[in-house]
Design a protein that fits this description.
disordered N terminus; 12-stranded mixed β-sheet; Jelly Rolls; 6-stranded antiparallel β-sheet; disordered C terminus; 5 helices
């Protein structure tokens, strides 16, 4: 029975240990308002043999990360320093900034996601853009040598404490829609296709065309804005107020391909429109801004149209973030997360149930053993009492005669009551 319990107990311990390992990568690590590095190995998070790490941090300002190689002085990354107005990358602790980014990137109330890559003689820090699984490079620095066996330290300070979560990225589910546009300059609208919602402020898509991929942002009360990708024989892109109007901002370079899909992001928030292209390098998908335009008006997009022209057809694939609300479909549930939580709860219930069953079985066996032992002892006492009653009179008490030759007494012939 003991072997059975130990055999059943082992998987229970394994489940608990596995849950603990999972928790390490999902439970926030708190750092106080004290500029002192704490290394991830102290929390059971390995870092050697890695060249990248992704994490989330919630802090008002001054989230610091250090990379400590085995063969050189540690490097330092400052996120949201100087009252959350500037970030920088240093090749030594508190050294001069060799790569800088201006802008606020931290938040006191919300987690912000970052990725740090070190490999091939280069260090890159990227922040998540929250759509299209893309990240924007904010810090980039070339170093002379590779960084072997890097240990990672984290710290907050200068008036801010922080919470950190380390682990793999969870890719957001998306609804994909493929649309073909003929080589005619005529817009097809995403609202008609059921893949646009007026509550969103960005859209991600892929397009395969040789040239002239057009996108129009329709207003409800103003003239539309038109974005041209790969116009003028795939040599120039621009944003303009109306068809055949004057370009307000331009980008020179080939960005479309007749054979391959190219991925783009268009975002409109507050009074700014941005167009970015997602490219992949050794550190992963990176968002590169190619067009940006600030307006004196609030941008309220009512619908989006797409078109190709000048005899060039195109194929478009649109991705809509599942966490963004959609007026027709509601929220698309994250089935992976739901299944994960469900199986986790079922695992706990099964483990507890098996534990209770095994304990009750073991308890019954022990009680049965005790009852059997008590019964045997009671029976022995009764037998002994009956024997005493039977043999208790003097005439039944006898001893064997002692040997006359003083030889050894043979106890087989002696009965003592």
């Amino acid at each position: 029975m003991r072997d059975t319990i130990e055999t059943a107990f082992f998987p229970v311990v394994a489940i608990i240990c596995a849950s603990g390992i999972y928790g390490i990568y999902n439970t926030p690590i708190s750092t106080p308002d004290q500029y002192r590095y704490r290394f991830l190995t102290e929390y059971g998070i390995p870092s050697p043999n890695r060249t990248a790490i992704t994490f989330k941090v919630r802090a008002c300002n001054d989230a610091h990360v250090t990379l400590r190689p085995s063969d050189r002085e540690p490097l330092e990354i400052v996120l949201g320093g100087w009252a959350n107005s500037r970030s920088c990358l240093r090749t030594e602790i508190q050294g001069p900034c060799l790569s800088e980014y201006v802008g606020d990137i931290l938040d006191c109330d919300d987690f912000r996601t970052f990725n740090v890559y070190w490999g091939n003689g280069r260090i890159k820090v990227r922040k998540s853009t929250s759509f299209c699984d893309a990240r924007e490079v904010i810090l980039d620095l070339r170093v002379n040598n590779s960084l072997p066996d890097v240990e990672i330290g984290i710290s907050t300070g200068y008036g801010a404490s922080g919470e950190w979560i380390f682990g793999a990225d969870r890719k957001l589910a998306s609804r994909n829609k493929s649309i073909f546009t003929p080589g005619k300059y005529k817009y097809q609208y995403l609202g008609t296709e059921g893949i646009f919602d007026t509550n969103v402020t960005s859209i991600c898509f892929q397009v395969k065309a040789c040239r002239e991929a057009h996108v129009v942002l329709e207003y409800s009360d103003k003239e539309p804005l038109e974005i041209i990708l790969g116009g003028w024989r795939n040599s120039q892109s621009c944003i303009r107020r109306k068809a055949n109007g004057t370009c307000w901002t331009e980008y020179t370079g080939r960005i479309l391909d007749c054979e391959d899909f190219r991925k783009f992001v268009i975002s409109w928030k507050f009074k700014e429109i941005r167009v970015g292209q997602i490219v992949k390098d050794e550190s992963g998908p990176t968002l590169e801004n190619i067009l940006s335009l600030e307006l004196n008006e609030t941008i309220n997009v009512a619908d989006i149209g797409i078109s190709t022209g000048l005899g060039t057809p195109g194929v478009w694939i649109f991705e809509v973030d599942s966490q963004q609300p959609n007026s027709q479909h509601g929220y698309t549930p994250n089935y992976g997360a739901i299944l994960g939580v469900t199986f986790g709860i079922l695992g706990v219930v099964v483990t507890v149930t098996l534990g209770i069953i095994l304990w009750r079985k073991f308890h019954k066996v022990q009680v049965k053993k005790v009852d059997t032992q008590i019964a045997e002892e009671t029976e022995n006492e009764v037998n002994a009492y009956e024997t005493l009653q039977t043999l208790g009179t003097p005439e039944h008490m006898y001893t064997a005669p002692l040997p006359q030759d003083n030889s050894t007494l043979d106890y087989d012939y002696v009965k003592i009551i």
